[in-house]
């Protein structure tokens, strides 16, 4: 694949929520999974695992934890990328090495590995003509998803996406300008006017998208929300919901063995 093709895959990404019934060939799936394994990894530990789900019964169990998103049931495959030190902890025990991976830093290392692998897989899938839709519900419901997927201690679902052949052609979504996201040498503080300018196109395109969706428009009108920023914080990502999800993740990390040696910082 040439550089133009690679950039074409990147720039034409859209989230696919409607899929054809066409199965994903095993050879294609294996190419995608192999691409995932070539992602950068902290210390080359590859502290992640990928769970491929095609069984409809298991997908039905995952439907509610994934907030009843239709693609969970309709897509041929679900890929769940997990932070995983279970495998390595067993290996180092067998080799009589010290066990150091039951803390929050270990989880962060494994979570970053998992996310890097997932993006490799996503790009490979789209290069093969498949569609994906990332699901933030993987982390929000990591406790229930871990139980459904039979994750042992040391394994926490972090990110996942549906996978299959697209049955829709959504338009690409707007993105913030690179000037809002990229800083040279050091972090550059923006003025209020520069911040508003960075989000100006987003406020128009995002508001239009929500208002064109009947259910979302109704929720906006009933709530008295007046702009896109309020959609994010009053409807989509409320303080209450994030506090609940934070507790869910914290409890899951504790149960899965990632917080056992966490100590308060000393002044």
Q: What ranges have pLDDT less than 50 throughout 5 or more consecutive residues?
A: none
> What is the string of helix and strand elements?
HHEHHEHHEHHEHHHHHH
**Proportion of residues in helical segments:** 40-55%
Query: Measured on Cα atoms, how large is the radius of gyration?
Result: 20 Å
| Overall SS class | alpha+beta
The largest pleated sheet is described as: 4 strands, antiparallel
Give the end-to-end Cα distance, rounded to a whole number of Å.
53 Å
Going across the biggest sheet, name each strand in turn: 1-2-4-3
CATH architecture of the largest domain: 3-Layer(aba) Sandwich
Summarize the structure in words.
The protein is of the alpha+beta class. The chain folds into 2 domains: 3-170, NADH Oxidase, CATH 3.40.109; 178-236, no CATH class. The chain has helices spanning 3-11, 26-37, 56-63, 70-74, 86-94, 104-127, 137-140, 142-148, 178-181, 192-198, 200-211, 214-223, 228-236, 239-255, and strands at residues 48-53, 77-84, 131-135, 155-164. A 4-stranded antiparallel β-sheet has the order 1-2-4-3, with helices on both faces. The radius of gyration is 20 Å and the shape is globular. The chain starts with a helix and ends in a 12-residue tail after the last helix.
């Amino acid at each position: 694949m040439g550089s133009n093709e690679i950039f074409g895959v990147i720039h034409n990404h859209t989230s696919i929520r409607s899929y054809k019934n066409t199965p994903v060939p095993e050879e294609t799936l294996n190419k995608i999974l192999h691409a995932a394994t070539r992602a950068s990894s902290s210390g080359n530990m590859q502290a992640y695992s990928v769970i491929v789900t095609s069984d409809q019964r298991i997908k039905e169990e995952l439907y509610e934890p994934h907030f009843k998103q239709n693609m969970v049931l309709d897509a041929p495959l679900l890929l769940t990328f997990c932070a995983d030190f279970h495998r390595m902890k067993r290996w180092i025990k067998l080799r009589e090495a010290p066990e150091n991976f039951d803390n929050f830093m270990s989880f962060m290392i494994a979570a970053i590995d998992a996310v890097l692998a997932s993006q490799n897989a996503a790009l490979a899938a789209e290069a093969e003509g498949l569609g994906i839709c990332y699901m933030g519900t993987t982390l929000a419901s990591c406790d229930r998803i871990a139980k459904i997927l039979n994750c042992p201690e040391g394994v926490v679902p972090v990110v996942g996406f549906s996978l299959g052949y697209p049955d829709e052609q959504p338009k690409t979504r707007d993105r913030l300008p690179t000037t809002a996201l990229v800083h040279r040498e050091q972090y550059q503080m923006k003025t209020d006017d520069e911040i508003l300018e960075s989000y100006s196109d987003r406020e128009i395109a995002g508001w239009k998208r929500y208002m064109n969706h009947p259910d979302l428009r109704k929720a906006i009108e009933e709530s008295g929300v007046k702009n896109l920023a309020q959609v994010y914080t009053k409807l989509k990502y409320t303080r209450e919901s994030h506090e609940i999800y934070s507790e869910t993740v914290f409890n899951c990390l504790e149960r899965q063995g990632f917080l056992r040696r966490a100590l308060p910082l000393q002044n």
